[in-house]
Design brief:
65 residues, 3-stranded antiparallel beta sheet, Ribosomal Protein L30, Chain: A, single chain
Amino acid sequence: MGSAMSEASMLKVTLVRSAIGGTQRQRQTLRALGLTRLRKTVIVRDNEPMRGRLRTVGHLIEVQS
């Protein structure tokens, strides 16, 4: 097993809409993902639990492979 993850198993996630007016669960999910400011981008693993988190806030984020 190599030390570097393949790019195919990672997702680039950017916060494009504010969480103001969203539910507490949505705000907590964004914080857990590390998305604390608009236009902030994070790299996350592409797996089923992460996709569930991304679905929770799908209307606030932009996802790239």
